[in-house]
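Q: I'm writing up a methods section and want to include an example of the input and output format. Could you take the sequence below and give the corresponding predicted structure tokens, formatted cleanly so I can copy it straight into the document?
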Amino acid sequence: MTQIKILWSALGLPTKPGQYRYGMYSFDVTLGDIERAAGNPDAVFTAIHPDFYPSEAPFLLTYVEFPSRVISAAEPQPAY
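A: Here is the clean output for your methods example:
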């Protein structure tokens, strides 16, 4: 399986599902991917291309990270 990272902004900040190109690769963007990116141009998706897919098949977007959002488990939690 081939795995790469792709910035949401590199795909052109898609607002509709479909196939989007970046360089020599094609990416299948779903409505769920659009919702998870939440319009954040800095969202970084992990894209996969399983070995059993034809070489011309698009990459699938999977895990998303938001580098500008740092969440620390060590921060005190508010009292309820």
